[in-house]
Design brief:
68 residues, alpha+beta, three-stranded antiparallel sheet, 31% helix
Length: 68
């Protein structure tokens, strides 16, 4: 399993974190999603077939794009 942290500037509250969690857990292979609105960071635990590119694409799709 891989753990990766993404910075998401659009996160401002717990509702945002919940929306990100709901969106990312739809991806096959995503095991866990934890976020902190104070740091604007989301940590994702995933395994194949999920990938960094898929996660970033999903974040953009749900209007919470990761910072480059």
């Amino acid at each position: 399993m891989t753990t990766e942290t993404f910075t998401i500037p659009n996160i401002s509250c717990g509702h945002c974190v919940a929306a990100v969690k709901d969106g990312l857990t739809e991806l096959e292979g995503v095991q866990a999603v934890n976020g902190d609105p104070a740091t604007k960071a989301v940590t994702v635990d995933y395994a194949p077939p999920a990938s960094t590119d898929q996660i970033k694409a999903k974040l953009a799709e749900i209007n919470y794009p990761a910072a480059p």
